[in-house]
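// run 5 | inverse folding | seed 20
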């Protein structure tokens, strides 16, 4: 479900044209050009649906208490080993660990009182 859509607007613009003719001197003209321009817009219906899920996830888990462990490249499929080892971010060693990880274990603490709601979400994908 993509939250972006497009909106088409008919526009008129002035275009500068240089006309070169073999026997006549070069001339300059201005012309009006009409064309359709597509602008990206936010699909509010999709955004509302996604917003419900985001709000639920923000409230259901204690994100300040997230814990994670990155496992080495050899936990991935053998075909991906070289690709994973080739990733690097010199400015952030933790991000490099993420990029090179073959697998990760993430532990999230449930906000007290949200345990049943989280189980419901896991079973139905509905917040």
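// decoded
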């Amino acid at each position: 479900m993509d939250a972006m859509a497009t909106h088409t607007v008919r526009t008129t613009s002035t275009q500068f044209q240089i006309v070169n003719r073999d026997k006549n001197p070069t001339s300059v003209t201005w012309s009006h050009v009409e064309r359709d321009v597509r602008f990206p817009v936010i699909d509010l219906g999709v955004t509302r649906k996604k917003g419900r899920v985001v709000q639920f996830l923000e409230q259901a888990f204690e994100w300040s208490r997230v814990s994670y462990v990155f496992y080495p490249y050899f936990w991935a499929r053998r075909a991906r080993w070289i690709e994973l080892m080739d990733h690097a971010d010199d400015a952030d060693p933790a991000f490099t660990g993420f990029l090179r990880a073959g697998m990760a274990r993430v532990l999230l603490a449930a906000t007290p009182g949200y345990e049943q709601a989280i189980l419901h979400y896991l079973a139905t994908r509905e917040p």
